[in-house]
Design a protein that fits this description.
Layout (H helix, E strand, L loop, with lengths): L1 E4 L5 E8 L2 E9 L5 E7 L7 E6 L5 E8 L2 E9 L5 E8 L2 E2 L1 E6 L5 E8 L2 E9 L6 E8 L2 E7 L6
Antiparallel strand pairs: 1-2, 2-3, 3-4, 4-5, 5-6, 6-7, 7-8, 8-9, 8-10, 10-11, 11-12, 12-13, 13-14
Length: about 160
């Protein structure tokens, strides 16, 4: 494995090269020594498999999977305090399936279904204070086809 260092001697990266391509498992660090990002590359030098990214405090910001350099599969994104912000699924780099968005206290604020990167299926937005549905639509290929709740005060 190749290891790169910051000028102060702390580790910057570690991984394998095949000619000028990153291959296999790689890790990257911030200058403070905390992990920045880690995951794997395929033999073409593309991100492939599970990847994680952290902030300089060591709190996870993102976890998701790649297939040949393109987001593919389940992904999670986190607030700077470490609580879950959003979870969604990608298929060949496009959002596909249900995306759920949370507030910093862990309450669901939005649920959206996607197909081929367009809203397709249920869209629900919740009142952040009461948790009640404020908006509820049904989409097909990015267009509203049914309005269930146009806008409610959530009371």
């Amino acid at each position: 494995a190749w290891v790169g260092y910051y000028p102060d001697g702390k580790k910057n990266y570690q991984g394998n090269w095949n000619e000028d391509l990153r291959v296999g498992d790689w890790s990257f660090w911030f200058e403070n020594g905390k992990v920045n990002e880690r995951g794997s590359y395929n033999d073409k030098g593309e991100k492939h498999g599970e990847w994680e990214r952290y902030n300089e405090s060591g709190i996870k910001e993102m976890a998701g999977s790649y297939k040949d350099g393109i987001p593919d599969g389940y992904w999670e994104y986190f607030f700077s305090n470490g609580s879950l912000q959003r979870k969604n699924n990608y298929k060949s780099g496009k959002m596909d399936g249900k995306t759920i968005t949370y507030d910093q206290r862990g309450r669901v604020v939005q649920e959206v279904e996607y197909k081929d990167n367009k809203r397709h299926g249920t869209y629900i937005r919740y009142n952040p204070k009461t948790g009640r549905k404020e908006e509820h639509y049904i989409f097909e290929n990015g267009q509203v086809v049914k309005v269930i709740i146009a806008h409610s005060s959530g009371k």
